[in-house]
Amino acid sequence: MKIKWFGHAAFLLSGNNVVLIDPFITDNPSAPCKWSDINCEIICITHGHQDHFGDAIKIAKKNNAVIISNHEIAEYASQSAMVEGLNKGGSIKMKNTKITMTNAFHSSSMKETYMGEACGYIIESGAKIYHAGDTCLFSDMRLIGDAGLDVAILPIGDRYTMGIDDAVSAVALLMPKIVIPMHYDTFPIIKQNPKKFKALVEAAGKAEVVILKPGEEFEV
Ligand code: NI
Ligand code: MN
């Protein structure tokens, strides 16, 4: 599987299928391309905030892609795109990819409208990836890790999500082989030093940290 970062929480996983997560491209100062450059089959949304829902509708329509999200966002997006609503603990098999919705602790709204609860995803499509979404640290990450993860994609930006120290603790619970940090440096308010995160995780011997630049790709 190839994992490409578009900055912030936006990733493209090219495994058995092509899965796009949280496609915040147009207003994302770190985005390396335009929304119209992205091709995908499935789009997973972690919550209703614009820095995650982003260009989902436009990209879904252009690609005939299916949007996967919580029930409330699926209801909203179904007015303009194909959708599959899930709730936490639930899975869906689409083509050769299995997607499971996990818990996350964060809010979820669009223009003050309640958009269900925030979530993360476990995506199995040749490799097993956990995208935490926006969340704080929580001890049930240990149960998510029990499934055996190849890669965990974790926020380190602080302020709206966990910061570096809690993300280091998250790695100890999740025990993935590889960790990719996200949700930092997009805006000055979430500026972080990912090399500090890498040094702390690798000093604990828990996992290898891969720091991507927006537009960069990593193969697992
Ligand atoms: Ni958010
Ligand atoms: Mn966010």
Briefly summarize what is shown.
This protein is α/β, with parallel strands linked by helices.
Describe this structure in words.
The chain is an alpha/beta fold. It has 6 helices and 16 strands. The strands form 3 sheets. Strands 6-5-4-3-2-1-16 form a 7-stranded mixed β-sheet. Strands 7-8-11-12-13-14-15 form a 7-stranded mixed β-sheet, covered by helices on one side. It has a two-stranded antiparallel sheet with strand order 9-10. The termini are close together. The structure holds nickel (II) ion and manganese (II) ion. Nickel (II) ion binds at residues 47, 49, 52, 106, 134, 160.
Secondary-structure element series: EEEEHHEHEEEEEEEHEHEHEE
Query: How much helix, percentage-wise, in residues?
Result: 10-25%
Order of strands in the sheet with the most strands? 6-5-4-3-2-1-16
Q: Please indicate the percent range of residues in DSSP E strands (runs of 2 or more).
A: 25-35%
Specify the overall morphology.
Answer: globular
Report the biggest beta sheet as strand number plus sense, adding barrel if it closes.
Answer: 7 strands, mixed
Structural class: alpha/beta
Mean pLDDT: 98
Extract low-pLDDT stretches: none
The N- and C-terminal alpha carbons lie at a distance of: 6 Å
> Rg to the nearest angstrom?
16 Å
Counting DSSP E segments of at least 2 residues, the number of strands comes to 16
Bound molecules: nickel (II) ion, manganese (II) ion
Number of helices: 6
